[in-house]
């Protein structure tokens, strides 16, 4: 029993460190795609990008993500986002899919509004 308690105490700092989201190492399209996933899925916590996102020169980015839902249950998956880059460098989400399901136009418009881009 003591061994179990010690293991749990050692795991707490690892869980806290894992909860820190550091998406700053990625480009704007990948970070914006993660924000779009958070908004679309209604996640109260930030979405962390796992691994290295794949970005193309034509505004398409693919990410793997993880987060926690309102009940603190892990949420993981993948998403693809397609952006148009404005003259000022801002991104507008044109199309997206989460877990292979395309997002409806109404959701895209709502996400762009929440991101301050529509």
Description:
This protein has three helices and five strands. A hairpin with a 4-residue loop joins strand 1 (48-55) and strand 2. It has a five-stranded antiparallel beta sheet with strand order 1-2-3-4-5, with helices on one face. The radius of gyration is 17 Å and the shape is globular. The model is unreliable at 2-19 (pLDDT under 50). It is α+β, with helices and mostly antiparallel strands.
Given as residue ranges, the uncertain stretches (5+ residues, pLDDT < 50) are 2-19
Dominant shape: globular
Biggest sheet strand order reads 1-2-3-4-5
Give the structural class: alpha+beta
pLDDT average, as an integer?
84
In percent, how much strand structure appears in the residues? 25-35%
End-to-end C-alpha gap: 56 Å
- Percent range of helical residues: 25-40%
**What is the number of strand segments?**
5
The biggest sheet amounts to: 5 strands, antiparallel
Q: Write down the oligomeric state.
A: single chain
Query: Mind telling me the C-alpha Rg?
Result: 17 Å
SSE succession: HHEEEEEH
Number of helical stretches of at least 4 residues: 3
What are its keywords?
33% strand; globular; 5-stranded antiparallel β-sheet; single chain; 5 strands; 36% helix; alpha+beta; disordered N terminus; 118 residues; 3 helices
Give the topology.
Blueprint (H helix, E strand, L loop, with lengths): L1 H18 L8 H14 L6 E8 L4 E9 L5 E12 L5 E8 L2 E2 L2 H10 L4
Antiparallel strand pairs: 1-2, 2-3, 3-4, 4-5
